[in-house]
Amino acid sequence: MSRVGRIIQTPDCVAEGADWLARTEPRFAAALIRTGPLPLRRRKDGYEALLAAIVSQQVSVASADAIWGRLKAARLTGPRKVGWASDEELRACGLSRQKIRYAKALAEARIDYAALRDAPAEEVIATLVEVPGIGRWTAEIYAMFSLGRADVFAPGDLALQEAARMIFELEARPTEKALRQMAEDWSPWRGVAARLLWAYFRVSKSREGIR
């Protein structure tokens, strides 16, 4: 058996997972009627993907995009360039003092990104969370979208918690621990369940006028 499990590579993979979830859980079947086809959401892996995640922490999408654009223009998105850059250069691109520390720590971590492609999900997560600025949520998102792991989930995500509350008609938003336990029933397609929950959250909140 593969050490990494199923890898999501194409929209057909997502559709296969969504079909399995719909057959397994009737409330997911109803949710899929509202969301329509789920997105692939695959990204490149490596330092740049994690740096982008650090940039986006605790800022709006627009602010993150602006900072990332300045980093790209300055050619400061690779580990060597970031490692060599002065704090002043990185600050000029919009990074806070804390995020400069995180970006440099990630550059100095010497992570073997190629090896992570063949590592079990928990090993990937354990490797990444050792780096300052990368928590479990960021590591799980990386495993899901940059490595395509079909059975990784991010129960600490507030949107996933809120979507689960709505779909399963819970009295309160489930805690991270409770949602992690719920998601065990969605294996081996927990990564697709996450896509479904995010899609449902967006559809529901858009209808309520929340963007």
UniProtKB/TrEMBL annotation:
<dbReference type="GO" id="GO:0032993">
    <property type="term" value="C:protein-DNA complex"/>
</dbReference>
<dbReference type="GO" id="GO:0006285">
    <property type="term" value="P:base-excision repair, AP site formation"/>
</dbReference>
<dbReference type="InterPro" id="IPR051912">
    <property type="entry name" value="Alkylbase_DNA_Glycosylase/TA"/>
</dbReference>
<dbReference type="GO" id="GO:0008725">
    <property type="term" value="F:DNA-3-methyladenine glycosylase activity"/>
</dbReference>
<dbReference type="InterPro" id="IPR011257">
    <property type="entry name" value="DNA_glycosylase"/>
</dbReference>
<keyword id="KW-0227">DNA damage</keyword>
<dbReference type="InterPro" id="IPR003265">
    <property type="entry name" value="HhH-GPD_domain"/>
</dbReference>
<dbReference type="GO" id="GO:0006307">
    <property type="term" value="P:DNA alkylation repair"/>
</dbReference>
<dbReference type="Pfam" id="PF00730">
    <property type="entry name" value="HhH-GPD"/>
</dbReference>
<dbReference type="GO" id="GO:0005737">
    <property type="term" value="C:cytoplasm"/>
</dbReference>
<protein>
    <recommendedName>
        <fullName>DNA-3-methyladenine glycosylase II</fullName>
        <ecNumber>3.2.2.21</ecNumber>
    </recommendedName>
</protein>
<keyword id="KW-0234">DNA repair</keyword>
<dbReference type="GO" id="GO:0043916">
    <property type="term" value="F:DNA-7-methylguanine glycosylase activity"/>
</dbReference>
<dbReference type="GO" id="GO:0032131">
    <property type="term" value="F:alkylated DNA binding"/>
</dbReference>
<feature type="domain" description="HhH-GPD">
    <location>
        <begin position="55"/>
        <end position="202"/>
    </location>
</feature>
